[in-house]
Structures are given as structure tokens and as C-alpha cells.
Specification:
397 residues, nicotinate phosphoribosyltransferase, TIM Barrel, 2 domains, 7-stranded antiparallel β-sheet, 18 strands, 36% helix
Length: 397
Amino acid sequence: MRVFNVASDEEIKRGETTDIYFVRTKKVIKSKGLDKTKVVAEVTTSSLPEKWPWGILCGVDELVKLLEGCPIDLYVMPEGSVFQSHDYYGNKVPVAFIDGPYGEFCELETPLLGFLCQASGVATMAARLRKLVGDKLLISFGIRRAHPALSPMIDRAGYIGGFDGASSLTGARKIGKEPKGTMPHALIIIFGDQVKAWKAFDEVIPRNVPRIALVDTYYDEKAEAIMAAEALGKDLWGVRLDTPGSRKGNFPEIIREIRWELDVRGHKHVKIIVSGGINDTNITELVKAGADGFGVGTALSNAPTVDFALDIVELEGRPVAKRGKLSGRKQVWRCRRCLTEVVLPADAHSPKCPACGGKTSTLLVQMVKGGKIVKKEPSVDQIRKYVMAQLKKLTVV
């Protein structure tokens, strides 16, 4: 009997995490000899959450593994691609399409979308935060706000989107990094004294771990920051503020006060790290106030999902579509200079960018052919580098 409420890899691959109507659909079409009907089905979204102007595609690694062994062809944007919900002309942008017998993959539609929807939401939130903070430190603190089984997905997507690391052991292992973090209030409370706890941490923990003192347990944040700086001196890398919302007051003002008081006492080397309720609506003012880094939890792990849908657009070589969708196999062309996207029929020639006149390149590439993976998956560092290069070209958040 399974202890935790999670589906196994095998159950997902077998389509046991699907919706019942796909099981019934497969039964009906198989009974009528239609299960081998060849279709092209594309993945699009009608809009992005919170009126985001762009998204970051993530979850492609799991999508590919899900469809491996299934007798279909898969074309998809490279993982980490910036995408819009609609192209320059207002047409919905497909981020992927499947070509093959519908009966062979219909039961996988639900997990297929789940892999892309949630990971893309997390990666997009991470990229938005990265765009807002510049080169400030960003650490994923979000796994306590989500099912623990999702830790590797959340922290991988966060890292791909631009975060510097993760606090969780499984998440850090997934991205091949050492976990990053500070200390909990519990450590301070167990010792009953801030200075004793900070000094014990300094004595026990290996020197390669930055000394970041939590400075809001008992006293005013400014007072504890000064205490930590005086207690650890040059060994203190930073102070962390994790003040709950009910006690924050004017949080930017608290940060400014701490920065000033540390600086005038000769502790300019001490960084200010903040956590607790950080999101894409308040992080900018905290950067301006002097924060050097952020531990982001709920805003990352509970990021809005991208509402992708899978729709048949070609049936036995003929263009078809339900209302609200455009029929036919398509290709997405993107400007190399400004990232403007244009959606055209798959056999169309390369267009010039309608926004700047630049050259365009195709985005949908084949990852699976006849059930076999035909393109090597890039490393998470390569994907993150790809994301960061695209972010430099984006002017809106």
C-alpha cells in the first residue's frame, strides 16, 4: 500500500492519471475501428495568467519521457523558450504538436498538459522575478507550500527560470547544485539566545556555507542585525529578515534602516536577505530599499498555471478544428532580434519579422519520432542560460 498520495511513474506512463472520458473515448473509437485514425493535435493557450505578456515553456523533459515508446511524432519548442499566447497577428501560438494515431496517445492528454501547465507557470514566475531584480540573489524556498513530491519539479523550473538555487535537498539534487539556505527561528529559540545560536552555527557548520544570521526572532530587526554583525564580524556574510506580514509595517523602511546602521558601523560587506510574502508585485520596492537577495516561497511554488489545451487540428491529412481553433499543421517562426512570433501553415516559407524586419527561425523542433527520442535533452544549466539570453531581449514584465 502506498504511504503518500502520489502516482507512480508507471501509473503516469500507463495513462492511469487521465480523465475518465479519455478512457471511454478510446473504448468507443477502438470498437468502431477508428483508434488508428491519424491526427495532428497541438498545444496552445488562449491567455496567460495575470495578463502576463510572455511565458517560459517548461516541463518538456517530462513530456518527452511520457511520450517515449508511444508510436507518434512530437514537435515542441525547446525547453526554456519564451512564448506568447498569441502571435503578432493575434493567432494562438502552438508550443507543441503530436502527429500520430489518436488512440495511441489520447489517454496521455491529461498528464501531458499537467507537466507543461504547472512547470511553465513556475518557470515564468521565476523569470519574472529575475527580470525584476536584475542580478540579486534568488533562492527557491517554496516546497513547504506544495506537495513534497513536487519539490524536484518546482526547484528545477525555478532554476530554469532564473533562480540561483533551492533550499530543498531533492530540488537541489535535481539541478545538480548544493542546497542553499540559512537557519530557522527554531534554532534561535532552542538556544534561547540569538548570539549563542549564531555562534554555535558558526562553530559547527562547514566554512563553505555562508553565515547568514536570522535577525527577527525576539528583538527589532535593526537591533538584531547589529548584534549579529558584532558577534560574527567579518565571518558574517548576511542577515536574513523573515518577519511575518503582521509585524512588518513598512518593510522597505526596515531594510533601509538596517543597511544604514550596518554601513555606519563598518559592516558594508554584510548582505540583507529577505523572505516571507515576496512576490512579483512587491519585490521591486525591496530591491530599491537595499535588499541583496530573496528567498521566495509561495509565489514560486504556487505560481499560476498556464492554461494549456490540446486540440486536434488535422484528421488523416485534412485540416479540421473545433470552434475557436485554427485548423491545420503549423510552424512557429520567431524573430532572432526581438522575439516576435508568427504562426504560419507548416509548409510556409520563412517570413521577415513584421515588427522589426529581422530574420526569423523555426521554434517547433522534433523531439520524438515513432516513439524514439531523437534529440538530446540539454542540461538544466544550458536551458537556464537560454532563458537568461532571451530575458535580455524582453522589455516588459
